[in-house]
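Try this one yourself first.
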């Protein structure tokens, strides 16, 4: 059984902005030791240290995990800025970012109580990672089909379908079609940066 950190990062390091300075600064802002943050994210301290020093590239699920733990957004981890607290985010301001094979667009403003993303998940990417964390998630399928596992139940979602669930339910997602799946994704941000989060593979195949 492989842990999330044992899987090779997809794509070259230059696919992502430099995240190392933000990762370390935000961990310290959250008053978390390297060991405590790594444990909450299901990583080893050595692996988190390599992320903070730029020796390894984090995947998008890993960035989402760290953002929740630090009580911030993926955009802040990446050092991205969206002007002000405007209610409107224009399409021209939504720059695509690649992480671990996923592509996402920041579709909400920073500093809010939830984070909104448009995400493209390629086929065969991250389908074996199970997530368990406080909060809620909502997703809406735009294109392609999504295989969603909630607890012991598997669901196949088509364009126009949506799901809204408690994130403490073990869950994982995978693209059903070779062209991947495109979806809108909204999740609540943790107010407590020390809230527990577990990432890990699930034994067996998704039906």
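Now uncover the answer:
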């Amino acid at each position: 059984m492989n842990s999330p950190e044992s899987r090779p990062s997809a794509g070259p390091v230059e696919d992502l902005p430099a995240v190392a300075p933000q990762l370390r600064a935000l961990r310290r802002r959250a008053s978390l030791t390297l060991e405590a943050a790594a444990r909450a994210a299901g990583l080893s301290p050595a692996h988190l240290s390599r992320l903070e020093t730029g020796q390894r590239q984090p995947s998008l699920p890993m960035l989402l995990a760290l953002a929740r733990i630090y009580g911030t957004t993926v955009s802040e981890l990446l050092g991205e800025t969206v002007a002000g607290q405007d209610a409107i985010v224009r399409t021209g301001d939504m720059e695509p970012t690649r992480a671990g094979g996923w592509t996402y667009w920041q579709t909400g403003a920073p500093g809010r109580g939830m984070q909104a993303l448009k995400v493209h998940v390629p086929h065969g990417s991250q389908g074996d990672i199970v997530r368990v964390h406080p909060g809620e998630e909502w997703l809406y399928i735009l294109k392609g089909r999504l295989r969603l596992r909630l607890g012991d139940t598997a669901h196949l979602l088509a364009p126009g379908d949506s799901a809204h669930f408690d994130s403490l339910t073990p869950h994982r997602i995978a693209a059903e079609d070779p062209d991947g799946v495109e979806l809108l994704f909204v999740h609540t941000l943790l107010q407590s940066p020390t809230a527990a989060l577990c990432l890990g593979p699930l034994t067996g195949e998704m039906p």
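Discussion: The CA atoms of residues 75 and 81 lie 7 Å apart. Helices lie at 20-29, 34-41, 45-52, 60-70, 74-77.
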